[in-house]
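Section 5: illustrative case.
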């Protein structure tokens, strides 16, 4: 539930998309040097949707995830998650947000779990911080671990589990306080393809069964090609999206239709993909024409 304090004013949470970013800017300053990690990023994710976020190194993916996780703050722009205004969080509000609204799974399996605690203790820890009784915590931890297929690992320490098992336990930890949004930063980055598929399946299951909104940052095509929407970030902005529809191919497999869209920001800016620019030698200036049902764009013939 979003709080009703002035620090994080409640929107009508159920009517809004789970995640709304509008013109988000994040500037890192080191002395006289400024790095614009996000440069007016727009993004909207519906409740219960699972999306992948892709983009080249340095595009701003992790910065976006840190802001959504409440561990970093935007320099400008609007970020709302499940009705929480992340630009206006008080210190106490931030703690409540991070504890109860978002769950986070990271790439490094070793960073997701406390090394000297068993799987069961790791999963019980977030609930303990939230004040849930020990008995309820134990029952819930066991249920979550069972559901994620690692019930038999309950008494094991992280180093006694495989990478895939550790990521399943990490997912259980992230789900322990019943978040409405799950953020995963390269969750399959350290896993082989088969195990990556299993983790992806587990993410999809929690999204579908629990209505949890899932945002996965990934370089892994296994992940990005299997979700219905992949958002590409370039130079701190959303540049394009691929929408996919999956249907049964009648032979036990699935048929995928994918369509790529360029994303237009509020000022009407569209990024033309590099391969298009290179193919037609589009450089500084292009010719535009408004047609009845589309816009045409040509290389500048004046050069
Ligand atoms: N704490 C920081 N201080 C200064 N610059 C930063 C900081 N964090 C990120 N940046 C810079 O912001 C830009 C975006 O970084 P970010 O880590 O969000 O990119 P990314 O898309 O996640 O990259 P990768 O795929 O390599 O993880 C980069 O130029 C990066 O160097």
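Designed sequence:
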């Amino acid at each position: 539930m979003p709080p009703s304090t002035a620090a994080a004013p409640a929107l009508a949470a159920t009517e809004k998309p789970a995640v709304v970013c509008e013109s988000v800017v994040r500037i890192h300053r080191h002395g006289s040097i400024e790095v614009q990690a996000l440069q007016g990023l727009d993004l909207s994710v519906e409740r219960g949707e699972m999306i992948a976020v892709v983009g080249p190194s340095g595009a701003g993916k992790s910065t976006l995830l840190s802001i959504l996780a409440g561990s970093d703050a935007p320099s400008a722009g609007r970020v709302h998650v499940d009705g929480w205004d992340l630009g206006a969080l008080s210190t106490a509000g931030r703690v409540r947000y991070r504890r109860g609204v978002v769950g986070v799974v990271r790439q490094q399996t070793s960073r997701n779990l406390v090394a000297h605690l068993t799987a069961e203790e790791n999963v019980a820890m977030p609930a303990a911080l939230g004040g849930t009784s020990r008995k309820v915590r134990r029952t819930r931890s066991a249920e979550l671990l069972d559901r994620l297929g690692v019930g038999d690992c309950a008494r094991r320490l992280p180093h006694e589990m495989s990478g895939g098992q550790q990521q399943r336990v990490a997912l259980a930890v992230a789900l322990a306080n019943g978040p409405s949004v799950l953020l995963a930063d390269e969750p399959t980055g350290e896993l082989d393809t088969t195990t990556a598929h299993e983790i992806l399946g587990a993410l999809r299951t929690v999204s579908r069964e629990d209505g949890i909104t899932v945002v996965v940052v990934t370089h892994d095509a296994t992940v990005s090609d299997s979700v219905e929407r992949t958002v590409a970030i370039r130079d701190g902005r959303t540049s394009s999206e691929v929408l996919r529809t999956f249907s049964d191919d009648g032979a036990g497999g699935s048929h995928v239709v994918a369509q790529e869209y360029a994303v237009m920001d509020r000022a009407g800016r569209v990024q033309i993909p590099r391969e298009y620019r290179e193919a037609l030698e589009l450089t500084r200036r292009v010719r535009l024409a408004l047609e009845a049902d589309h816009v045409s764009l040509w290389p500048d013939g004046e050069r």
